[in-house]
UniProtKB/TrEMBL annotation:
This is Uncharacterized protein LOC107817064. GO terms for cellular component: extracellular region. Belongs to the plant self-incompatibility (S1) protein family. Residues 1-22 form the signal peptide.
Length: 126
């Protein structure tokens, strides 16, 4: 018989199962300083960077926890402020990121993350 017709429903089912298990996390870093911010991130091995991002700029990345090395770190600098921060860690996410989104803000006192719907100071500038 036609084996393709037999396997097709199984393939469709597998597709539905794997897509429901897909775990894509948007991760963003916003500049809420009154000064330009240089953002150099490595997200899952990819270089995502912006030099001298103006106030209000939002750098976007995404992390797929089904793929290898699902981590993201960013080196941020603005004037005297600088630091290297983990912005996605699969051992902490998704519990810390709100609704599967990791929204970070660089502010004068440090790096904030939306946790349970509220911006919380997670890292002070070193
Ligand atoms: C990543 O981007 C920064 C800033 O543009 C650059 O200095 C660095 O060489 C890049 N690294 C890689 C591995 O592409
Ligand atoms: C990042 O995503 C936000 C929300 O979707 C969007 O408003 C912003 O323009 C994006 N930033 C860049 C640099 O594309």
């Amino acid at each position: 018989m036609n084996s393709f017709k037999f396997y097709l429903p199984i393939l469709v089912l597998l597709q539905i199962l794997t897509s429901s298990l897909a775990t894509l996390y948007p991760v963003s870093v916003a500049n809420i300083l009154n000064a330009p911010l240089t953002i150099h991130c490595i997200a899952q091995g990819q270089n995502v960077s912006r030099d001298n991002a103006p106030a209000g700029f939002v750098l976007n990345m995404s992390i797929d926890t089904n793929l290898a090395n699902p981590t993201a770190t960013c080196q941020l600098s603005s004037g005297n402020l600088q630091g290297n921060f983990v912005v996605f860690d699969p051992s902490k996410e998704p519990n810390r990121c709100f609704n599967g989104r990791c929204l970070w803000q660089a502010r004068p006192d440090g790096l904030y993350l939306v946790i349970n719907g509220q911006f919380s100071l997670v890292y002070k500038w070193p």
